[in-house]
Specification:
By secondary structure, the protein is an alpha/beta fold. The chain contains 11 helices and 8 strands. A hairpin with a 2-residue loop joins strand 1 and strand 2. Helix 2 packs across helix 3, helix 5 crosses helix 6 and helix 6 runs antiparallel to helix 7.
Amino acid sequence: MSSITTNQGILHYEVYGRGKPVILLHGWLGSWGLWQETMTYLGQYYRTYALDFWGFGESGKKLNTYLVPDFVSLVDQFMEQLGITSAPLVGHSMGGTVSLSVAIHYPQRAQKVVIIGSPVNGSSLALALKFAGMKWVAKPLFTFFPAFRAAMRLASPYICRDPRFPAMMDRDLSKTTVESFLTSIASLRRTDLRPDMHTIQVPVMGMFGHRDNIVSPNEWKVLKESLPDAQIERYPNAGHFIMLDEPKTFMPVLKDFLDAPTGQI
């Protein structure tokens, strides 16, 4: 287990493999652990880093805010401290929104961007997630936390087909605070990257599952409208967690995109 100290506390990360760096960013309520299978695969070809955002996993949980811009800053600080000038960024859900934001605000950091079931516009979040960003909803959930965790375990099979997912989700949820739960999803709901997407000059690939019930599966259209040259990959049998639902088809597509010279994507 590795960590660095940033201006907003401890940042935990895991690293696997050798070669050029690739940075993996998890989604809301997740952690680096959702990337273990992806790291095992990509680590054969790349030095793969998976971070825990502040407020999630093993990273620090004593911040005043957990906003999307905070996580964008986190990526920049991480790369600065590890001496990574630039790298491809691969983000799931909120992590993909952060990856696009890094390409907008720190363009020198992102060589390529891959988003997986990510909202370009926060209005594409499912209604339940929009409500989760409201204090009058979040506070009671954490007041009755055991019941909330039990309900999420019951809902897990409807979110992801991987039989390991309920335990993974429960583990990650147990390490989340009400502050990081509430403010991060509220910030994501308010985020709309569309006005600035035209400034992105690096290759972008969007991967979307037709059965996604967390972020609208039609968000691929928003990405394509904002970035006409973006590569779109759609998975008819996958939901929000494509890397867990369809790993055998997900992994090679991701690697091909990372391997391709910039001018050939």
